[in-house]
Specification:
By secondary structure, the protein is an alpha/beta fold. The protein has 2 domains: 153 residues, Rossmann fold (3-Layer(aba) Sandwich); 128 residues, Hypothetical Protein Tm841, Chain: A,domain 3, CATH 3.30.1180.10. Helix content is 43%, strand content 23%. The chain contains 11 helices and 13 strands. 44% of the residues are buried. About 2% of the residues have low confidence.
Length: 292
C-alpha cells in the first residue's frame, strides 16, 4: 500500500511542493484579538507581517482535537497508510494531542494505520523532513524505510536563524524586556537554534547585518562539516524579507557550492512569534545513509 504523508502548516513548505507530492497539511490556529484564523487558509503570511509592522499582535494555538479526529477518521475510512510528521513537541502541544486523538480513534477504528513522528523541528527545518518523506513515498518506499529516514533527520537537522526585532521574541517569553531594549538600541541581532529537544535557544549575538549573515554561514561549516553541504538540500525561509533570503542563498552558493534549495516565506504559525525580518537556514549536520 502506498504511504501518504500528513503534516501541519508549521512546516512552511512552498505550495508547489505540497501539491507535487500530495502532502496534506492541517492548519495551526492564529488569532488577532477575538478573531481566529487558519494559518495559510484564512490568513496569509504577507497580510499578517504587514499588520505586525503596524503593531498588531497575533497569537497562535495548537490544532484542536476535533480537527485531528476528523482527519484520522477520514484516514481510517479510506483505509490509508499514513505518516503524520508534526511540529516540534518542544514548541507546541500538537504532537501530544495527536497521540491522544489517534488512540481514541483506534478504539472506533482498530485498523487505523497512522504513525506519528515528532519532528523536533520548526518551519522549513521541519519541512525538509516532510519533503524527504514525501519524495520517498512517491518513489514507492515502504513505511519502515521512510520512518528510518525520519529518525535520522530528526536527530541531525540544524536550525540557524535570526530575528530582526527582539520585541517579538520578548512577547513570546524568549528574551527579557532589557535584552529586547538593548538589542534594538545597539543593533544587536541574536542567532538562535533549535537543539535536539526541539525547544528554542539563543546561541550568539552579533552587531550588524553583514556580520550576522557571515556568522550564520560560518556556523553552517562548523556544524555541517561532516555532512557534505554541497550535495544536500538547504532550506531557507524569511519573515517577508525575500531580498534577505536571496542574499543568504547567494552567499551559501558562493561559499559551499550548494545548488539545491527550498526557499519560502515563514507562515503565520511561526511568523507570529518570530516577526517580520526573520531569516533562517536549515541543513543536516551528518551525511545521510545513501539508501535515503
Amino acid at each position: 500500500m502506498a504511504v501518504k504523508i500528513l503534516s501541519d502548516s508549521a512546516c512552511d513548505l512552498p505550495d508547489e511542493i505540497l501539491e507535487e507530492y500530495n502532502i496534506d497539511t492541517l492548519p495551526i490556529l492564529v488569532s488577532k484579538g477575538e478573531e481566529e484564523y487558519l494559518d495559510k487558509v484564512t490568513l496569509d503570511p504577507k497580510t499578517m507581517y504587514d499588520e505586525m509592522r503596524k503593531g498588531v499582535v497575533y497569537k497562535t494555538a495548537q490544532i484542536p482535537p476535533q480537527m485531528f479526529s476528523e482527519k484520522f477518521e477520514e484516514i481510517a475510512k479510506n483505509n490509508e497508510s499514513v505518516i503524520y510528521v508534526c511540529f516540534s513537541s518542544g514548541l507546541s502541544g500538537t504532537y501530544n494531542t495527536s497521540l491522544i486523538v489517534r488512540d481514541e480513534t483506534k478504539r472506533k477504528y482498530p485498523d487505523l494505520d497512522i504513525d506519528i513522528v515528532d519532528s523536533r523541528s520548526a518551519s522549513v527545518g521541519f519541512g525538509l523532513l516532510v519533503y524527504k518523506a514525501a519524495k520517498m513515498a512517491k518513489e514507492g518506499k515502504s513505511k519502515e524505510e521512510i520512518l528510518k529516514m525520519l529518525d535520522f533527520y530528526v536527530k541531525h537537522i540544524e536550525h540557524i536563524f535570526t530575528v530582526d526585532n527582539l520585541e517579538y521574541l520578548f512577547r513570546g517569553g524568549r528574551v527579557t524586556r532589557a535584552q529586547a531594549f538593548v538589542g534594538g538600541l545597539l543593533n544587536i541581532k541574536p542567532i538562535l537554534d533549535i537543539p535536539e529537544d526541539g525547544t528554542l535557544r539563543p546561541i550568539e549575538n552579533v552587531r550588524g547585518r553583514k556580520k550576522l549573515l557571515n556568522r550564520m554561514i560560518d556556523i553552517m561549516e562548523e556544524r555541517g562539516g561532516n555532512a557534505d553541504l554541497t550535495h544536500q538540500t538547504i532550506g531557507i525561509n524569511h519573515g517577508d524579507d525575500l531580498e534577505g533570503a536571496l542574499t543568504l542563498k547567494e552567499m551559501i552558493e558562493e561559499r559551499y557550492g550548494c545548488t539545491d534549495f527550498v526557499v519560502n516565506i515563514i507562515g503565520c504559525a511561526i511568523g507570529a512569534h518570530a516577526g517580520p525580518g526573520t531569516l533562517s537556514v536549515f541543513f543536516l549536520n551528518e551525511k545521510p545513509d545513501p539508501e535515503f
